[in-house]
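User: I'm putting together a small comparison set for a docking exercise, and I want a reference complex before I start. The sequence is below, and the ligand is 2-aminohexanedioic acid. Could you produce the 3D structure with the ligand included, as structure tokens?
Assistant: Of course. I'll restate your input first, then give the structure tokens for the complex.
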Amino acid sequence: MTLSTLPTVKRFSHLIGGKAVSSAEYFRSHNSSKLSDVLGEFPIATLEQVREACLTAREAFKTWGKTPAPIRGEIIGQIGTALTREKENLSQLLSREMGKTLKEARGDVQEAIDTCHFFQSEGRRLYGQTVPSEMANKELKTYRRPLGVVGMVTAGNFPVAVPSWKIIPALVTGNTIVWKPSEDAPLTSYAFAKLLEEGGLPSGVLNVVFGMGGGSTGEHLVNMMDESLLGKFAFTGSTAVGRQIGAIAGRNLLHPTLELGGKNPLVVMRDADLENAVSGALWASFGTAGQRCTSAGNILLDAPIYDQFKAMFLERVKNIRIGNPLEFEDVLYGPFINERFLKTWLEHVEWGHADGATLLYGGAQVTAEHKPSGFQGDPAAGPYGWPTVWEAQKGMKIFQTEVFGPTINLVKVDGIQDALEVSNSVEYGLSSAIYTNNREWAYAFQEGIQAGMTSINNSTTGAEAHMPFGGVKGSGNGTRESGIWVLDGYTYWHGVNDDVSGKLQLAQMDTQYLEPRGEFKVSDL
Ligand code: UN1
């Protein structure tokens, strides 16, 4: 095939101020399950274009920030309607672009719809308080105010749900946005942005700039904090990049939202329902090919059930169905998001060997010559990993370090206190889970675990759209997404004193305090 007969690839644009804007340089997005299927070409925004997007958002903020919150909420409702109508098409596209199963892709889109439902009505609440004053004829009131222009950088593993956790609450509270979506899922992000626009957002309220992260568009957007063009930054991604963003935000006195990595423990106690625990562990380890920040990183097994769980788990692992999720709807997982994720995962396999961990199963790329029995279709069409199971110990590099891939460590512990100590020895603290029917152990875990989220008798994944999402330690800076808690991330509190007395009344000084009366002693009775 000569160059002139190659099928043309559709070119997409940035969305800045309601206009399609192009750049000199482009990158391509591929179908994760079929690398020959090119989904589109996307421009790489320059520093000047990112600055232009921020200035556009700043201009739009003047009107959007003053639009009544219930009206902003109605637009969020209309976005929810548009997403519901396009749910199936968007899910198919999402699955094609980043490789998660259709069931999960539908969940990803549904999480954004749920977020719209929640925040549509938040536009009619967004409560402030009336507070009693210590003086007569004085009114005290509090208001939530928007922060201005929010810069956002998001990851490719949840290309709809996770951006929606930032975009929807930021909009309903009156902020405007410059969003740099993941270079791993640009077409899904573009489609999502068009549905957001369809909901009725005025031009310039949501601006989308495409490109890479470090040294490219993402970094330019982060640097806009130093140019005082942003009032807030929100990021989902690695702990290393989160620390850099946090430092830049800090010197500009901004409080960023940082949702970072995890190495989430899933504990199985000696009394647990093992069938249920094995199902939860299998899903937490291998769902989305392990590419969730809530995926299980270590399975901590109480010593008396270690061997039984290991046997039951490995039996299930050997039968996992893997393949192109658009061709085979019943697979547990599909390909890596792209080759980059496969490469990092293979390096992680090497660490496991260097650590001296015992490889119980997998540990390699799936190829035509070497594939698991449950593999469906053509392994050469996309980057696939074997489900991989290690026996590991606290302190090993594979025990400590997050990796986005179908890999899990079995770690032996002895009793609840040991389970807690081993769980808390990683530097992350995002999600966690325990399987037990002993109330005291479940309670001890809930109280002792260092994590932002805990499941009892369920997997480490599965956060709902109206619960606080986020972690402690290396997993974030304490900000929370979703539910009412996210509102604090996108607003500041404005306290207003309204004095209607017509005279100068000084708090603390002119306050009419009443003296206590004579002392009363119970012993005098
Ligand atoms: C993520 O992996 O970045 O709880 C988010 C879950 C999903 C969200 C995961 N609802 O697994």
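The chain has two domains: 15-260+479-492, 264-468. The CA atoms of residues 466 and 484 lie 7 Å apart.
User: Thanks, that's exactly what I needed.
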